[in-house]
Amino acid sequence: MHGPASPGWLLVALCAATGAYCLLRMRSSVEEQRRAAGGEALMGFGMAVMAVPATVFTPPGWAWPLYAAVFGAAALRALWSGRSSPHHLHHLVGTAAMVYMAVAMAASPGAHHHVGAGVPLVTGPLLLYFTGYVLLSGARLVPVAVAAGTGTVRWGDRPELARACRLSMGIGMVAMLLAL
User: Fold this and answer.
1) What is the pTM of this model?
2) pLDDT tens for each residue of 93-128
3) Which parts of the chain are beta strand (E)?
4) Which uninterrupted H or E stretch holds 107?
5) How many Å separate Cα 67 from the centre of its chain?
6) DSSP conformation letters of 35-60
């Protein structure tokens, strides 16, 4: 991504840590959670790679079309399973945003994307969507009382951590769209 190196590295760390936690969530005994965690791990690690500051590493020209293909396939998978959960529809928007950013980066490698007329047509709605998602997700992090006698919950099965993971990726997406 284009922009200052320090915030770029913070974004890389946030996204990589989120991806790592999502890998941990893939060990859950709940099948739906495992499936969602796999897609979220892909998003987290993909965002981490994309967020590496351009001053440190500029990917070769073939990397962006490959990136677009990987996230295009993830978008098709999310579209296929979108009928079962609103979260899958959110995942579809996220993967489509990753395809959009990969195409934008391929169109102008190493150059800053400054559009004289303001925010590009696709970036604006994506920014609005992810900003709203971040605000809503943040509000959902309000602690919920745990029922007495429920026992110990494994790290991969903690709903508040899964929400925090999704919130982190939403914040990362907003930052990446702003840097685009």
Assistant:
1) 0.78
2) 999 999 999 888 888 755 444 444 445 788 989 999
3) none
4) helix 86-107
5) 14
6) HHHHHHHHHHHHHHHHTS-TTT----
